[in-house]
Amino acid sequence: MNLYLAPMEGITTRIYRDVFGKYYKGLAKCFTPFLSPNQNESFQKKELFEIENREEQTILTVPQILCCNIEHFLWAAVEVAKLGYKEVNFNLGCPSGTVVTKKKGSGFLLYPDELEAFFEIVFPEVKKLGLGFSIKTRLGKNEPDEFKRILDIYNKFDFTEIIIHPRVQKDFYKGEVRLEWFDYAIANSKNKVVYNGDLFMKEDLENFEKKYPDIDTVMLGRGLIGRPFLTEEDGVLPKDLNKLRAFHNELANSYKNRYDEHATLSKMKEIWDYMGKMLFVDESGYKRIKKAKSLEEYLFAAETVFCNMNI
């Protein structure tokens, strides 16, 4: 089974991806948090940091673009190709309200005619650049049966793969994934399909493989942030706690070397929003981490949690 790391804004940063690849193997590919090109035809500094120095990346990385404007998308694709990337991914899955109201992410799915016209112009230009073109998508904006029309559009183009999170935008990440619509995609897609959604443990991956033996690739997001060892171990808790501790400490140090203390604390605490739940950290330990006012206080609280795991 090929495993991908999902793009998660503010979490799966270049620093996170590079440190992850140093400690944990098993990821076939990862995707950058979305790049949002605009009329200025320039990436923000933080966006450029995500994609520059491609040869130094520890995991094969694909830039993801979020927009609904043809010219902006094509400018970004050209820049990505100049940097030596071989594939670009188009974000049609982000459910954030601020994104959707701009007709971006899963908000673009509400306008299938415009989406089709977008691809008719963009797709051949991307191919001329020698780039693979993949999509990360939801089923639709409001109702899952919107996906019938959307998949018909995707089938008109030779995409590298269609990564499907089988929920609609208004679901966000709540409720059960709509597997019947992933089944529909398997039966009707002319492009390779990749699954994304609610895979949190090794058992989830094993059950998925049993149910879908012909699907060879899945994308992991929240589950992998919460259990970074998921690519290598089969337990609910880490067998190699020292590796997880070292990964965590180098990640915090790498953030500290680039950002100020406040930003470093914010990023590390957000990661614990997932790790705390997945690793069943007791409430008092989690609170100490979240209430830490300094990096020193935070590192002490995190080390206490790791020591308690060992017990």
Which secondary structure elements does this structure contain, and how are they paired or packed?
Elements: E1 2-5, H1 14-23, E2 27-31, H2 45-51, E3 61-62, E4 64-65, H3 70-82, E5 87-92, H4 97-100, H5 112-128, E6 132-137, H6 147-154, E7 162-164, H7 179-188, E8 193-196, H8 202-211, E9 217-220, H9 222-226, H10 241-258, H11 261-278, H12 283-291, H13 295-310
Parallel strand pairs: 1-2, 1-9, 2-3, 4-5, 5-6, 6-7, 7-8, 8-9
Helix pairs in contact: 1-10, 3-5, 10-11, 12-13
Question: How does this model look, in words?
Answer:
- It is a single chain.
- The chain is of the alpha/beta class and 311 residues long.
- Helix content is 47%, strand content 12%.
- It is built from 13 helices and 9 strands.
- It has helices spanning 14-23, 45-51, 70-82, 97-100, 112-128, 147-154, 179-188, 202-211, 222-226, 241-258, 261-278, 283-291, 295-310, and strands spanning 2-5, 27-31, 61-62, 64-65, 87-92, 132-137, 162-164, 193-196, 217-220.
- It has a 9-stranded parallel sheet.
- Helix 3 (70-82) packs parallel to helix 5, helix 10 packs antiparallel against helix 11 and helix 12 (283-291) runs antiparallel to helix 13.
- The longest helix is centred in the last third of the chain and has 18 residues, at 241-258.
- The model has no long low-confidence stretch (mean pLDDT 96).
